[in-house]
Design goal:
The C terminus is likely disordered. This protein folds into two domains: 123 residues, Arc Repressor Mutant, subunit A; 56 residues, no CATH class. Strands 1-2 form a two-stranded antiparallel ribbon. It is globular, with a radius of gyration of 18 Å. Helix 2 crosses helix 5, helix 3 crosses helix 4 and helix 6 runs antiparallel to helix 7. It contains seven helices and two strands; from the N terminus they run H-H-H-H-E-E-H-H-H.
Length: 182
């Protein structure tokens, strides 16, 4: 069966979303590997960098929509190769926070450069207006999917991100406090 034989628009939408995600992830893996990072390592570093302050493993897991245990394993490996380190929180000595090492920052910067070049190439098939429309539509679809999956999570995501595709943290604590949208 040819991939293009899906005639129902909803089936075609789901197939295209899935194929685009898989293809984009593979492209990212190739680009980030040029800097010596895996896709998962890059994503962790992206959250740590965006937070602009030390974050917990739980914070990273929450923002990447992953299980805390799986993120802990990734961070353990990242710590062994000196990309991040765990430090005690000065206010709560029981809490461990993540900070990026100099090596992690260097590789993250290199990978980001490669990733932005990839994005420029990929987005070249669309106008700026089409990109903004796509961002808005995908944001709405994401919110609806979350609403169907877990209604309380959709409400939280809407408060945090609205329909914006990218979010970053303020300088305030990530845990339970205000997050800012760019």
């Amino acid at each position: 069966m040819d991939k293009e034989t899906f005639h129902h628009p909803i089936h075609m939408l789901w197939i295209l979303l899935d194929q685009t995600y898989v293809a984009a992830s593979k492209c990212q893996e190739v680009e980030f590997a040029k800097a010596g990072l895996t896709l998962q390592q890059y994503r962790v570093l992206m959250v740590v960098d965006a937070a602009q302050q030390p974050v917990t493993v739980t914070d990273v897991a929450r923002w990447l929509d992953r299980n805390t245990n799986s993120i802990s394993l990734i961070i353990d490996r990242m710590e062994k190769i000196d990309l991040v380190k765990r430090v005690r929180d000065l206010k709560d000595r029981r809490s461990l926070r993540l900070v990026m090492t100099a090596k992690g920052q260097d590789l993250f910067s290199q990978a980001t450069k490669h990733g932005l070049e990839l994005l420029d190439t990929i987005r070249s098939c669309c106008t700026d207006e089409e990109i903004q429309t796509l961002i808005n539509l995908l944001g709405r679809l994401r919110e609806k999917v979350l609403e169907e999956l877990i209604p309380e999570e959709a409400e939280r995501m809407t408060k945090i991100k609205g329909t914006r595709a990218e979010a970053f943290f303020t300088k305030e604590s990530v845990k339970g406090k205000k997050r800012k949208i760019s």
